[in-house]
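REQUEST ID: PR-0412
SUBMITTED BY: lab tech R.K.
PRIORITY: routine
TASK: structure prediction, single protein chain
INPUT:
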Amino acid sequence: MAKGSSINGNADGKNGSNKSYTVTGRGKVSRPKMVKEVKQGKHPDTHIMKRDGVEYARNNPNSNKPDNIDD
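STATUS: complete
OUTPUT:
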């Protein structure tokens, strides 16, 4: 599956949150589906963060470049 840097948040939710993500080679993936895939270990270099009770995908910190998925 995708490494963190090939996953981009779409900022298509309320106040610019991510209702979906774009994954290189796959296209648009809903937030719930992305969260499920990350929990299943399908996206190395990506973890789940929770804000206001809602789970989002985030890239793990990378010392080489700032490539976090926008939350």
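NOTES: Residues 13 and 19 are 5 Å apart (CA to CA).
REVIEWED BY: pending
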